[in-house]
């Protein structure tokens, strides 16, 4: 395939924005520094520009293995991860019909696979728990507590499937209230990256394509990202016709 053919193929898909916008007051992990957008110079000094003050795990972001893994093979920073790791086939599982603070277990994933599509090696797996609406309405209390997520055995199951990234629209991939972040420990120690606060997963089909790129910051435990998904345009058109 040449570049013209590649461009034609890319343009045949609908692009879905999977990142939340950054503005002061957005939800953050309770112990993390808040996001700040500070005026640095205005037009009186020649040009308008701002200073960004942003935590590595603010908004839609990706965790590097070093975020939780102190030593050994899993102690890898974001800048050491090959770029091809941040793109691939994306499988999006819809769990919006489950109650809040729901813990996804392997049997739930396996049942979804039977009804939809199988998760395969090198897939990027997303879990939609319906949190995007809370972001749209600024419902910080909803976002910051009782989020749904994965249990330890689900992390082990996804590890056995040899996926390369796992994400959700929740504040954390581990379910709210756990005494130990097993999902982070298991996945990150095996270089399976974690995505959190992913937006608009309700707009993604069961099978799509995902791309995100982290900032090239040395020794970073994570990075804000601009994430996008690709889906067939006919799926987008069909969805509009149903509205």
Architecture overview:
It is a single chain. It contains 7 helices and 12 strands. With 243 residues, it is of the alpha/beta class. It has a single domain, classed as 3-Layer(bba) Sandwich (Glucose Oxidase, domain 1). It has a 7-stranded mixed beta barrel with strand order 4-10-9-7-5-11-12. A two-stranded antiparallel ribbon has the order 2-3. It has a two-stranded parallel sheet with strand order 6-8. A hairpin with a 7-residue loop joins strand 11 and strand 12. Helix 5 runs parallel beside helix 6. The longest helix has 10 residues. The radius of gyration is 18 Å and the shape is globular. The chain starts with a helix and ends with a helix. The model has no long low-confidence stretch (mean pLDDT 95).
Short descriptors:
two-stranded antiparallel ribbon; globular; 7-stranded mixed β-barrel; 26% strand; Glucose Oxidase, domain 1; 243 residues; alpha/beta
């Amino acid at each position: 395939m040449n570049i013209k053919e590649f461009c034609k193929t890319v343009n045949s898909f609908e692009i879905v924005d999977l990142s939340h916008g950054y503005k002061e007051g957005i939800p953050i992990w309770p112990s993390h520094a808040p996001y700040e957008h500070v005026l640095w110079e205005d037009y009186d000094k020649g040009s308008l520009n701002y200073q960004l003050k942003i935590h590595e795990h603010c908004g839609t972001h990706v965790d590097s293995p070093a975020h939780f893994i102190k030593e050994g093979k899993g102690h890898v920073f974001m800048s050491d991860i090959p770029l091809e790791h941040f793109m691939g086939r994306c499988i999006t599982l819809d769990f919006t019909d489950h109650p809040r603070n729901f813990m996804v277990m392997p049997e739930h994933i396996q049942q979804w696979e039977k009804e939809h599509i199988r998760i395969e090696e090198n897939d990027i797996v997303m879990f939609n728990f319906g949190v995007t609406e809370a972001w749209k309405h600024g419902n910080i209390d909803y976002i910051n507590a009782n989020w749904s997520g994965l249990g330890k055995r689900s992390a082990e199951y996804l590890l056995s499937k040899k996926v390369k990234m796992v994400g959700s629209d929740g504040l954390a991939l581990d379910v709210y209230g756990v005494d130990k972040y097993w999902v982070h420990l298991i996945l990150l120690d095996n270089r399976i990256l974690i995505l959190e606060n992913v937006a608009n997963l309700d707009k993604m089909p069961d099978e799509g394509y995902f791309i995100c790129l982290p900032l090239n910051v040395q020794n970073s435990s994570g990075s804000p990202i601009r994430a996008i998904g690709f889906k067939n345009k006919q799926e987008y058109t069909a969805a509009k016709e149903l509205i």
